[in-house]
Structure prediction request, 344 residues.
Amino acid sequence: MSQYAHLSEPDPEFVAYLKDHPREILPIPTADQIPGFKQGFIDLLQAPFAAFQKSHAKLRVQEYKIPVEGGEILVRAVIPGTGEGKEQYPLLFWTHGGGFVVGTVDLDDYFLRNLSAELQVTTLNVEYRLAPAHTYPTALNDSYAALKWSTLSGTLRQAVNNTDTLSVSLKKGFIVGGCSAGGNLAAALSLRARDDSFFHPSPITGQYLYCPFLLHYNAYDRFPGEQLSLEQNKDAPGLTKEIAVWFIDTYKAPGNDPELSPALAKSHAGLPPAFLQVAGRDPIRDDSFLYDRLLREAGVKTRVNVYLGLPHGFAMEYFMLKSAQQFELDVRTGLRWLLSREKA
Prediction:
């Protein structure tokens, strides 16, 4: 949308930081370079946070292997408290970013541990299988299997009581969230779960979408004049148009499937409230504005925070910026809003 073009104007603090810390534009890797590309992505975004990770003595970290079609995947739970009592917490189910090609449960580990401790929520982080070895819809199906696993209750589903294992009460809150490709998965999971009777006893109560991908570039013509950021921000730091398109093409994602492009869903009615965080210099910025409009038109409550002149996923890499610190505060405010009984 042309009214959002001003959001691409570079943030002055970010410009000053880049001047002192120039960043290379990542080239598109060849097939034999993809393993190194994946590790480089983790090193770039995870390593700097080691010195900034807060110490939380009263957290439990538990890992599980979940069977999925053709294999198994890892999930990591971070649970408040020592486990000595019977306290139960809301659940934040998390899918990491990385364009469906890179990323692990380690990517957002620091972020989720802090949220678990500060907000008193159990977080469950999913390591879905990645392209190019596992193309669409593997990431979504893996994540959906993990979502079902997380809600299993001995009284409702089967003998294994995973809600107790995770110290979770879904009545206190059941949020799906993710960044970038993970935000895409969170939105798609919300749509699929809305229409699945399995989740009717314990519906998702909120969705947290941080710089989400929500519409395949081949479907832009479905919304004339609304998807301009891919061109406006094609050379942005970090995620460029070229890399964004390469991610989607490597995932072999179809252009007209609403489970890949949640904006294309026939109806958005009945979805849980959504909290979106949008970076102004992000090539996929306009996905969020489009989705916010579609949700509101369907009667879904939304809350949107916008960060002018900043690139895709900026708070993960440029955490020292004032805007990234504001982002962290906004995350907590937004999640508390999703967890609140009354959402204005």
Remarks:
- The two ends are 26 Å apart (CA to CA).
- The chain has a mean pLDDT of 91.
- The CA atoms of residues 269 and 299 lie 6 Å apart.
